[in-house]
Amino acid sequence: MRYCLFLTVLLLLQAGIHAQTKKTGKAIICLTYDDGLQSHLSTVLPQLDSAGLKATFFLNAIQGSSEAIGEASPAVAAWTRAAGNGHELANHTLFHACPERLGWQKAFAIESYTVEKIITEIKTENTLLSLLDPKRKARAFAFPCNNFLIGSTDYSDLIRKQNLVTYGRIGGDRKSIITQFGNINSMKMPSWMVEEGTTLAELIAFAEKVRDSNGMGIYQFHGIGAEFFKISKETHSAFLNYLKEHQDVYWVTTFSDALDLITSK
After folding, report:
1. How many whole angstroms separate alpha carbon 178 and alpha carbon 105?
2. Whole-angstrom distance, CA of residue 104 vs CA of residue 111
3. Which of 57, 77, 55 is nearest to 66 (CA)?
């Protein structure tokens, strides 16, 4: 009798683990890009649109001026087009404060922040994003430098309870693959922060691990061909082509669309 009960519970748990991927019949891949970098506008968005894939961009303050009188800010215009093309614009705070030990000046580091200050930044960034992407009413969030602490206070649950954001993304490594869909913290979804110089073979290997585990993998990219933590634009383009060629295996979607599915009953 006890064995039968144990077996029943085990089967139910296993069903819960893979229930979400069964909704799509595919492994879930989320391509996310941090900091609203110029290479995202010049390289990433054209490559994504060419491949017909959608991604999530976690943005900070947007450059709002133009070098020519009468012309819109190139960044404002480009991010507005990106939203119109189905990409997700998400919240990464206004000023991207990080720990002082990572090189931030003390006056602007997270150690100088209060919970009230970070909440004000998140609210302000939400307002900015609503002007770029008015159709989206709820915003996902990525913690700057993957840090969810103000002093000893974990502010992740607080911003969720205040309905400032819907889902949150934190950091992780190449082992950060989500499989336990019935037991996730949707405000602390782990991701692989792609390291400088990562190769095409390494990007594909992570996707294959996601596929083999019937899970979900979140890529956290920064610079593509430029800036920091960069990979080459050729590697990035080839990886998108790989995902496009294997859409029978992978559901490549935005961060919020993936979480909407996972958290749905």
Report:
1. 35
2. 10
3. 77
End-to-end CA, the chain: 30
Structure tokens at 76: 């404002």
List the chain domain ranges: 22-63+70-263
Provide, for the chain, the percentages of residues in helix, strand and coil under a 3-state DSSP scheme, each rounded to the nearest 5.
45, 15, 40
Q: Nearest CA to 218 among 162, 179, 263, 165?
A: 179
Tokens of 59: 């943005």
Q: Is the pLDDT of residue 47 over 90?
A: yes
User: Residue 180 is which amino acid?
Assistant: Q
So what's the pLDDT on residue 49? 98
pLDDT, tens digit (0-9, with 9 covering 90-100), for 99-114: 999 999 998 999 999 9
Contact 36, 60 (CB under 8 A): yes
Mean pLDDT in residue range 108-131 = 96
Mean of all residue pLDDT scores within the chain: 91
For residue 70, the model assigns a pLDDT of 73
Where does residue 90 rank: exposed (0-12), middle (13-18), buried (19+ CB within 10 A)? buried
The CATH number of domain 22-63+70-263, selected from 3.40.50.150, 3.40.50.300, 2.40.50.100, 3.20.20.370: 3.20.20.370
Q: What pTM was computed for the model?
A: 0.91
Residue 244 corresponds to which tokens in the numbers above? 């496009």
Residue 231 CA to residue 218 CA, distance in Å, equals: 16
